[in-house]
Amino acid sequence: MTAVTLRDEATELLRELLRLDTVNPPGNETQAAELLRAYLDEAGVACELYARVPERANLVARIPGRGDGPSLLLLSHTDTVLADPDEWSLDPWSGELLDEHVWGRGALDMKGQVAASAVAMATLAREGFRPAGDLVFAACADEEVGADFGLSWLCREHPEAVRTDYCINEGGGDRVVVEGRPLYLCAGAEKMSSPFLLRVRGRSGHASMPGIADNALVRAARLVERLGSLEPQPRLLPETEGFFRALGGVPDVSAVREGLAAVEPVVRALVEPMLAFTVSPTMIQASRQRNVVPGVCEVVCDCRLLPGQTQAEVERAVREWLGEDNYELEWIEGVGGTRSPLGTPLWDAVESFVHAEEPDAALVPIVLPGFTDSHWVREAFGTVVYGFFPMRAMDVELAARLVHSADERIPVDDLELGTRFLVHVARRLGE
User: Fold this and answer.
1) How far apart are CA 405 and CA 400, in angstroms?
2) Backbone phi, then psi, for 86, in 5-degree steps?
3) Number of structural domains the chain divides into
4) Domain identity same for 167 and 43
5) pLDDT score, position 4
6) Which of 24, 95, 100, 171 is deepest in the core (most CB within 10 A)?
7) In this structure, are 322 and 387 located in the same domain?
8) Sign of the four-CA dihedral 51, 102, 74, 127
9) Which residues, in sequence order, are bridge partners of residue 336?
10) pLDDT over 70, % of the chain
């Protein structure tokens, strides 16, 4: 198959996927799974649909291996976040091809990678490719909400369908240029999503006589302001050290923040979340009546922990920063926070693609500030997972602004690049 055909095939399949409304909730991912199954069936790729409920199916496709090498999972999800058509220049579910970009909700997150993975599977199957270990493609439901219809459910109820040695998922592949050298970012670790509730207590009273009450909302405002200025102690992880090494050298941890001040903003924005846990107050609830001074105010804070950090450690730091006051801190959940070793055969396969595309470029590790489905297979099977889908045509800042936002789109050049990458890594690992 020529590169042009590969490009056209991935583009057309993505356009079809984008025309399917799989906003989660409710998801309705089965329609995407059935489209992918029909496409892969024509190429001779064996597919199965696994569904906790009929309308929310996960597709798992497989090219059986020889049994003498590692298995590889191409992981993706078919659900998307919502889209308000009034905010868009085009219909979010049009799959429009305009100015060599494919437009639609999910083009970047992550139906583009879904289409590229399916086309890579079909391409290899048509060639008669038989890898050393099984090559598996999973297009899962419910990544955006995580209500146990997708990969978490598959790992528990159908583990053999998705158990592999290695995995490529979303979360990396951005290209940045630092001092003239291109760097491709590969997510080898992810922070833990660990939101907490700050419950601030005062004393209620009539709003017309504020002096007789102790306004919990006012108390909370002071604490929220304190949280906004929190700067936790930085910590250098193996991924962060690898990133700095590519920039020219690993700094002393005490001088990291000062050193970042001289770095260009796009790089600084990437590095800062990798250095420490983060806290962002996002939701607040106090009195339910205008004329009642609230005796209780609840503040929900988004909190992201570094891999290896514990909630107890972070709670001590937060309480020390806030000082003594009449509040309670209650953890809501803790999800993710996993990492994979670097320097594996999968890392070498990804790196070989980067060097083939741009000989002077470097592959550098990052800690993803958010989290993806990668943690499910890391935790269940010890799978080595990297987030990587290369993008070169679209500026990294523009891509970040478009994900989960209006006018989401992907350059056809990047869709083709990502498809070629997945074919390459499957061949390299499956030799």
Assistant:
1) 9
2) -65, -20
3) 2
4) yes
5) 52
6) 171
7) no
8) positive
9) 192
10) 99
Tally of CB atoms within 10 A around 161: 16
Q: Tokens standing for 31?
A: 């329609």
Residue 355 and residue 295 share a domain: no
Residue 143 CA neighbour count, 13 Å, CB half? 26
Q: Which amino acid is at 428?
A: R
The pLDDT-based confidence of 1 (bands split at 50, 70, 90) is: very low
Among 336, 361, 380, the domain-final residue is: 336
d(CA 141, CA 152): 10
User: Residue 79: pLDDT above 90?
Assistant: yes
- Say whether pLDDT at 300 is over 70: yes
Of 264 and 322, the one with more pLDDT? 322
Q: What residues does 410 pair with on adjacent strands?
A: 102
- Who wins on pLDDT, 262 or 291? 291
Q: In whole angstroms, how far apart are CA 264 and each of 168, 175, 260, 270, 377?
A: 29, 14, 8, 10, 35
Please enumerate in sequence order all residues whose Cβ is within 8 A of that of 6, keeping only pairs 6 or more positions apart, or say none.
Answer: 119, 123, 416, 419, 420, 423
Domain of 164 in residue numbering reads as 3-178+338-429
Tell me what the mean pLDDT of segment 114-123 comes to: 98
Q: What's the token pair of residue 382?
A: 């010890």
pLDDT of residue 264: 78
Nearest-angstrom CA–CA distance, 193 and 206: 39
Q: How far apart are CA 347 and CA 50, in angstroms?
A: 30
In a shared domain, residues 9 and 148: yes
Q: For residue range 88-100, what is the model confidence (pLDDT) as tens digits? A: 999 999 999 999 9
Q: What pLDDT is attached to residue 57?
A: 98
